[in-house]
Specification:
This protein is mainly α and 66 residues long. It has helices at residues 9-25, 40-63.
Length: 66
């Protein structure tokens, strides 16, 4: 029997955002999840943009009274 990973809706949303940001920046992410060929700078750029986007979403949700 193989083990299946379970992801929450939040984890899947963040993963999707990460892929969108990488695409916007022109950084190809491998389908197998191995990032060994991607530089630390590129990964940091993706992470930094992800953090900014999450902060913006949080700010919007606070401003809309959610």
């Amino acid at each position: 029997m193989s083990k299946k990973q379970k992801f929450s809706i939040h984890e899947l949303a963040i993963e999707q955002m990460k892929l969108e940001i990488a695409h916007e920046l022109g950084i190809p992410l491998p389908a197998d999840g191995y990032y060994g060929h991607i530089s630390t700078k590129e990964i940091g750029t993706i992470g930094g943009n992800l953090t900014k986007r999450l902060a913006q979403l949080r700010e919007q949700s606070l401003n809309s009274g959610m």
